[in-house]
Amino acid sequence: MSSSILEHIVPVDCHYIRDERACAFLLIEGDRASFVDNNTVFAVPYLLSELESRNIKRENVDYIIVTHVHLDHAGGTAELLKHCPNAKVLAHPKASRHLANPSRLIEGARAVYGEPLFTQLYGNIEPVPEDRIYSVADNETIKWGDRELKFMHTLGHATHSICIYDSKINGVFTGDSFGIGQSDKQTFENLFIIISTAPSDFDPLEAEKTISRILELSPDYVFLPHYGIHKNPTQIADRLLRALDSMKILINTAIAKQISDDKLMEWLCPRVEESIRDQIRWCGFNDVEKAMEWLGDDPRINAMGLMVAIKKMRAKR
Ligand SMILES: [Zn+2]
User: Fold this and answer.
1) Domains of the chain by range and CATH?
2) Which of 24, 78, 137, 183 could disulfide-link 230, Cβ–Cβ 3.0 to 4.6 Å?
């Protein structure tokens, strides 16, 4: 399967922040196509040129599937839709609401990235027309050509997140619910992977459940927007569950030590970074600095996600 897999599923580099940092997936079904994720408005030309290079008409794009509405996955939805006149957007019901009215998303991402980086990364985000969005139910399946796509509502990374099982390849499009990391482009062997704890919905217990739910499908592959096609999902899951344990320890320690809200980031940042370095080493990937460079600002963003989770847990007590 590994050599022919790319005839059905193509990771398209969106050149987001750096090369091979974020991709969208082009699904090919005969002369029809669908996309899973679309990164940002700036990625749309790459997606359209991939279609063109495969002689697939824009009119033949059936679905624009959104794993979740974080803007590095769904920021280009409205723009891509303009070029694909027959496509329908498939998303989690909560994601659908944000796509139709992106004001809160924009506000949230501005808070994380600040100006001018927000505009530089995401540009102008327009609403998606409601009549072109279809909200998928948990466990809903859609037959598309000779493959079946099964949609699952998956918590842990984001409350508007779905994972999509593709029967043709026996693989799962995981959004950011199954870690972020790199694989070997030829062998699809995982090189390194870390858990994503980005704000503002990270929940370690739900994240564990999602990982189990993905494994229950016995997939041969997982497709990660950050980045590419990965085989051996069971091995990856072991690494992610270990990483989640270390995140739980950080959360519990911060709570037990009563680190005040205003000191949380200062306390978390070096510890999250240290944990990420460990996670990279657990994969047997020796060039930790290269992996850290690829991750860029993610350690800080992951620390922010833990901070939000800690504040929520305290508020519940
Ligand atoms: Zn995300």
Assistant:
1) 5-239 (3.60.15.10)
2) 183
